[in-house]
Amino acid sequence: MLNKTPLWKTLLVIFVITIGALYASPNLYGEDPAVQVSGLRGVEVDASTLDQIKSQLDENNIETMSVALEDGQVLARFKDTENQLKARDLLDDTYGRDYSVALNLTPATPDWLAAVGGTPMKLGLDLSGGVSFLMEVNMKEAVNKAQTGLVGDFRSELRGEKIRYRSVKADGDAVKVIFRNVEDIEKAEDFLSKQNRDLLFTIDEDALTLKATMTEQKQKEIREYALQQNITIIRNRVNELGVAEPLVQRQGQKHIVIELPGVQDTAKAKEILNATATIEFRMVDSDNDISNALDGRVPASSQLLYERNGTPVLLKKRIMLTGDHIVDANSGFDEYSRPQVNITLDSPGGSKFSNATKDNIGKPMATVFIEYKGTDRKDAEGNMIFEKVEEVISVATIQARLGKSFRITGAGSQQEAHNLALLLRAGALIAPIQIVEERTVGPSLGAENIKLGFQAIVGGFALVFIFMMIYYRAFGVVANLALGANLIMIVGVMSMIPGATLTLPGMAGIVLTVGMAVDANVLIFERIREELRSGKSVQQSIHQGYDAAFSTILDANITTLIAAFILFAVGTGPIKGFAVTLSIGIITSMFTAIVGTRTVVNAVWGGKRLDKLSI
């Protein structure tokens, strides 16, 4: 029998639309003003921190909706922004040194809906408000840091080959090695040139020097790596701010664009993003008395630093390894059930660390955390001057010659080992960065954009609804039902995709899909009318109308989908937002306009003896 939809297909349509409606529903509940407290530099937020925050808020009569520990962070929800701001100021004064205290908007989704993964759509900067930064990477410092690394590498490599030298030091944009005789120069040049094929070596026999200069290609690789590494680390730092859907992407050769929707606390954002941190492994100086160093008599080859608890540690200045070579770190237990941190290095790092530790078995080694904090001062070139802060986060004894994989013991507790692993895994910024442009979009402007965008969508839908009902009568009602289901499914899919963000151009994409979705039904309905005018029966006309129009609709939507994919691939920011909603709208409209409407039409008119149709 013509125009009868199988039961399984009807149930499939109902199931798909129901799932779309379920995951679209969190957008109806709105958001609550909140304050998020998260640990910085490995500091853990636990139940005791939660209790302290609750007590402080109660003592200062700040009303809360809830205060809970979620994903290692304390999240306090409030009924209004007045209490939110009071709580932020109070908690920042108390915990601002070791914790990030940030303003936030958190979804008010019911627990039962959140339990099945229901979350509202992520809103872009233009809709939710927030802050945007344009950050510049100090490429000169990146090249200088690589040059400093070469100095240490040359010393280790020459010592390993037993080639005697007088000194190794940086000289302008090159590394200069001074020898005692010409024979050693030739041996060194032959060995180092094989180990470092991306460097240019020149010999000055009269001055007994060998000079190594980085090629332009090598410097380009260093700058590219510095930019990519900084982008990765900045993404990790942005997570501390609790931003729902941040945007971190490169712009040009040395700039990074960062958009933080919903963040109004620009000072805290700048503090976290500007911090430049790294990890170094250095030997503890056990040959000299630390009491002399505490009295101000620090040996020239050593440096006095302190652990987080204030314990002084005398370290040798020579750096064994930096955190640039760490590719993975995780916490665990050793054979005696003591906490440890397992570290994996890249190949160059493993070779370097093996050579550095083979003569230091049984001696203590320190892991040093170094952070460069931005100041208000600038150098002659206008770049921000950074203040260097060093802190010992771990002291452990070298048990055996270390290589690509090794472990650090002596972390104290499993929690401390876990925090240390997180810190090491976070990586290090290759070069300092500075904010060159800052732009803030207020929440009121974002609300205005949402209001205007929503009015555009409602207006477009209303006009299409009226036209379809007047022109196609009963079949127009079916098309309108499909159009409503299409909008629900677009919102549901946008809410389900973790990386999808709704922007103002994205709302324009939704308005565009309204016309495109109803266009498919126009083609189908007009074809049904043609079949009726040619004298065919009602059932044959419906069947032929859908079948004949399908290929035309498919071709038109595929070509549009290809254009949307290209927009997404080559576009950035607003263009991508438009392409995402357009792509989703095309796919969902194909389902609702063809499969959905046919299911309804078959259920109402299919298989019946009819003389005419309301179309």
How would you describe the overall organization of this protein?
This protein is an alpha+beta fold and 615 residues long. It folds into four domains: 7-26 and 443-605, Multidrug efflux transporter AcrB transmembrane fold; 31-107, Alpha-Beta Plaits (2-Layer Sandwich), CATH 3.30.70.260; 140-218, Hypothetical Protein, Haloacid Dehalogenase-like Hydrolase, Chain: A, domain 2, CATH 3.30.1240; 275-429, 2-Layer Sandwich (Gyrase A, domain 2). The protein has 16 helices and 22 strands. A five-stranded antiparallel β-sheet has the order 14-15-13-18-19. Strands 2-3-1-4 form a four-stranded antiparallel β-sheet. α13 packs across α16, α14 packs antiparallel against α15 and α15 packs antiparallel against α16 (574-605). The mean pLDDT is 83.
List the helices and strands and how they pair.
Layout: H1 7-24, E1 31-39, H2 47-59, E2 66-70, E3 73-77, H3 81-95, E4 99-107, H4 111-115, E5 122-123, H5 125-128, E6 130-137, H6 139-160, E7 167-171, E8 174-178, H7 182-195, E9 199-204, E10 209-214, H8 216-238, E11 247-251, E12 255-261, H9 266-274, E13 276-284, H10 290-294, E14 302-306, E15 312-322, E16 326-333, E17 339-345, H11 347-357, E18 364-378, E19 384-397, E20 405-409, H12 414-425, E21 433-441, H13 443-496, E22 501-502, H14 504-533, H15 538-570, H16 574-605
Parallel strand pairs: 5-22
Antiparallel strand pairs: 1-3, 1-4, 2-3, 6-12, 6-21, 7-8, 8-10, 9-10, 11-12, 13-15, 13-18, 14-15, 16-17, 17-20, 18-19
Helix pairs in contact: 1-13, 6-8, 13-14, 13-16, 14-15, 14-16, 15-16
